[in-house]
C-alpha cells in the first residue's frame, strides 16, 4: 500500500497515487491490477471513514479478482466496508463468508466485526461469543506466527550450521586439492626426471653403439683392404685365392650389414619413418623433410653405398631433386611412401623416376627399374 501506513496526513497523497494507478489499470484493462488497486482504495476509504467509496471499490475488487486464494480476504474487506456504512445485514453476509478462510487473522477480523454488529443490534450473548472466537483465532494466529518465527530462527540456525559445515568441508576440499596437486606435481617432476635420465641413458647408449659400429666398420675396412692387397700382391694358388675371396666376401657382407644397422639408427632415417608413420595414421605430419635432412640423407647414403651420389653426379647430369629420389630408392622405404617426404603425388614420383632412368641415365631396358639400375651401379 502506498503511504497508507504512514498516518492520516498521508491519506490524501495515497489516494491520489492509488487512484492514478487504478485509472491506468482500467485503461489497459488489466484485471489483476484493477483488483489490487481497488482493494487498496477500499482499505484506504475505510480508514478515511468514507464508507460508500469503500463499498464501491471493495465490490470492484471482488468483480475483477482472478485469484481464488484471496477471496475470503476480499469478503472481509467488503463486509468491513458495509459495516462502515451501517449496512449490518450485508456486512454480516460477507463477514460470515470470510469465516471459511484458513487464515486465523482473517477469521479474527471477521469475528471482531461480527461482535461489533451483534453489540450494536443488542445481542450481547452473540457479541460475547464472537468476542471469544475473535480472541481464540487471534491467539492462534499469534501462536502460529510465533511458531513460524521459531521455525524461521531454527531454519536460520540450521542454515548457518550448514554454511559453517560447508566452509569446513570446503577448507578440507581445498586442502585435499592442494595436497593432491602437490603430490601429482611432485610425481610428475619425478617421472620427468626419470624420463630425462632414460633419454640421456639411451642417447648415451646410442652414441656408444655408434662409436662401436664405427670401430667395427673401421676394423672391417682394414681387414678388407688387407685381404685385397694380399690377393693382388701375392701369388697364391687357386684354392688359396678362392678361400681369401670367400673371406673377403664375408667381410664385405658383414660390413654392409653394419652399415645398414648404422643407417637405420641415424637421425635422418628415424625422422623419415616418423613422418611416414604420421601420414599413415592421420594423413598429415607436423614435421617436414627439409634441406638439411636431404643433405644428411645423401651423407648417410654415401657412407652406406660407397659414395654413390658423388659417382652418379660425376657420370650423369642429375639435378639435386633427382639425387634425392635416387637416395630414397636406395632405402628400404616403399616407393609409395616417397610422396610423404618429397611432398608430391605418387604419380609424380613414378614419372620422375621413369624420366631419370630414360633421359638422364640413358637406360632403354624397360624391364629395369631405377632401383635395379642403382643397385647395379653400386
From TrEMBL:
Coiled-coil regions listed: 210-261
Designated name of the protein: Uncharacterized protein
TM region positions: 173-195
Organism: Bacteroides cellulosilyticus
SUPFAM superfamilies reported in the protein's UniProt record: TPR-like
Keywords: Coiled coil, Membrane, Transmembrane, Transmembrane helix
InterPro entries: TPR-like_helical_dom_sf
Lineage, uppermost ranks: Bacteria, Pseudomonadati, Bacteroidota, Bacteroidia, Bacteroidales
